[in-house]
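To the wet lab folks,

You asked to see what we're planning to order before we commit. Fair enough. Below is the target structure as tokens, and below that is the sequence we designed to fit it. If anything looks off to you, flag it before the synthesis order goes out.
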């Protein structure tokens, strides 16, 4: 099947968010002033002159019944404010995923470092990570080994992480600890990398 006929590729071309100043394709426009006041119908050139008086831009904001409505505004500031709002909304909507890393009380150093690298990736992506030590058979009586492993593990990621929930024993089989990104540590680390000492 020809994909071009499905219309999937039609939206690929970059589209400017707003039509501004000389790019407005109408000879006559209804003008709204910078404070929301209605100025009325002007020719495009008159509207552009009016916008220039305010040292602002002319922005096409709507098309009602084929009548173009433009507003005089500082378009650069408008775009910046909009971007800022969108970023704030996105940050509020950021979904924290729960990830899990499984360890054993007798895990080797190499495996521990490999798992710590994976946990670091999860943490830097903003995820919460459950570090779980699984005890088998007689290991259950040596929960201190599990605590040692968790402490050792945390030292490998503590430059970017903080403990959000201390280690607790679940069903006598799992020692679970939760860690997540420590924003201040990550910021400090980033600054150190940006400004290495001479």
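Sequence we intend to order:
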């Amino acid at each position: 099947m020809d994909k071009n006929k499905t219309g999937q590729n039609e939206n690929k071309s970059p589209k400017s968010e707003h039509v501004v100043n000389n790019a407005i394709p109408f000879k006559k426009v209804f003008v709204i002033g910078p404070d929301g006041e209605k100025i009325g119908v002007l020719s495009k050139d008159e509207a552009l002159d009016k916008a220039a008086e305010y040292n602002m831009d002319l922005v096409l904001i709507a098309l009602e019944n084929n009548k173009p409505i433009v507003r005089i505004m500082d378009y650069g500031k408008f775009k910046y404010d909009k971007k800022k709002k969108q970023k704030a909304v996105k940050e509020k909507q950021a979904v924290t995923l729960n990830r899990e890393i499984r360890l054993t009380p007798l895990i080797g150093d190499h495996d521990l470092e490999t798992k710590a690298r994976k946990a670091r990736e999860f943490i830097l992506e903003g995820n919460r990570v459950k570090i779980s030590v699984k005890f088998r058979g007689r290991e259950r009586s040596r929960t201190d080994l599990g605590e040692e492993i968790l402490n050792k593990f945390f030292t490998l990621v503590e430059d970017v992480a903080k403990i959000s929930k201390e280690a607790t024993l679940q069903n006598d089989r799992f020692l679970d600890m939760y860690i997540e990104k420590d924003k201040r540590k990550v910021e400090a680390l980033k600054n150190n990398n940006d400004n290495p000492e001479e």
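Structural context that might help your review: Residues 19-75 form a domain with the Ubiquitin-like (UB roll) fold (CATH 3.10.20.80). Strands lie at 19-20, 28-32, 38-43, 57-64, 67-73, 98-103, 128-134, 161-170, 174-181.

Thanks,
Computational group
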